[in-house]
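Progress against Task 2.4 (sequence-to-structure conversion) is shown through the following example record, which the project officer requested during the mid-term review.
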Amino acid sequence: MLNSGLSVTKPKGNRRQQLEQQIEAWQTLLQNIDGDKHNS
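Structure tokens generated for the chain above:
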């Protein structure tokens, strides 16, 4: 909700946040895959 105002003044910063969120999502996804490997 707080980012809605920042996205207007700092689109680049908002873009970076989106990329960071994607990276975190990929990291958690990879961790889940590794966890599945260890469990099996």
